[in-house]
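Hello,

Following up on my earlier ticket. Below are the two sequence lines again, exactly as submitted.
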Amino acid sequence: GAVVSQHPSRVICKSGTSVKIECRSLDFQATTMFWYRQFPKQSLMLMATSNEGSKATYEQGVEKDKFLINHASLTLSTLTVTSAHPEDSSFYICSARDPYSPRGLETQYFGPGTRLLVL
Amino acid sequence: DAKTTQPPSMDCAEGRAANLPCNHSTISGNEYVYWYRQIHSQGPQYIIHGLKNNETNEMASLIITEDRKSSTLILPHATLRDTAVYYCIVSIQGAQKLVFGQGTRLTINP
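Thanks for your patience. The regenerated structure is below:
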């Protein structure tokens, strides 16, 4: 099946620093990738939709200048949390859509997640 | 907003069938029903999806009522590794977005 990886799996940083999270589709080309955030004991919340070669589309309430998304290739999207603060501590999960998946257009393949802790 | 309603939690004995219900009374004719699950501290995993016919794969079966207002995910022989939060999502093809509700926390007991 399709595999999506994330790096790093866990990161601890100081308040005010920036953190970059990578999301890669390993065995397929993903024209669209998605970034989610999940707080403890809560569901996943979509932050933004990332299309290769174009600007990301952010969900309402998500600051695009704080959460920078770059989807420079068909297998890589990055999320940069700029000037991170303790309230940004969360579980960040990416997913990728395989346009040729036999399971259908809306099947998303998720990465293992990145746990961010801002001190 | 999520368009589905699921019980917050369920328990099932190991080896028995786990039946997870989902209500989606406002589902449109072109919306599919998707099921994902999330094991603790991992990314969600695709399980199955369907439009109106019942579906079965190596992981589970999906039973959709004739009026399509509800569905049931069936794990035929639950194991301890099936303990997870199960999400039922409705989405049209091409919409791209998957909106996650609160899901059902399924606990498989030995």
